[in-house]
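General statements about sequence and structure are easier to judge against a single worked case. For one protein, we set the task of working out the structure tokens from the amino acid sequence alone. This step matters because it turns folding into a mapping between discrete strings. The amino acid sequence and the backbone structure tokens for this protein are reproduced below.
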Amino acid sequence: MGKNKFYKNLYQSISYFSVIMIFVFFLLIGFVASLNYENNFGWILLVISISLIVLFFLLGFYWIFQKVLINEKGIQIVFLNKIIKECYWKEIESIEDANIMKNPAIRIKLFNGSEIHLDKRKSIIAAIELCSNRIVK
């Protein structure tokens, strides 16, 4: 079997980081423009841009670095080698398409009423179909 370990929230992380980088880009343009003035307080813009990037990783650390393991037993969500959620294939009611924060996702509904959301990537779909013998729509 191929690779069965994936970053759980990769698409969301990329989209949020892209938005932050757009803000940082404009802040850096402001910093460069401020270098032309004698009373230079542009360093504040530089501090803000670095702070935005650091805050993204500090606040999002838990979500950015979650991984999902898909195997013959089921699905495990792991953070720093600790299992935070686990479900077996027999516990899954349905697997369907969804959108989470305007990003394509797979919604896995369990019989106990809880849900797991994974990025809708070809590799994740292939791993689910291979291990669970279900077709992901």
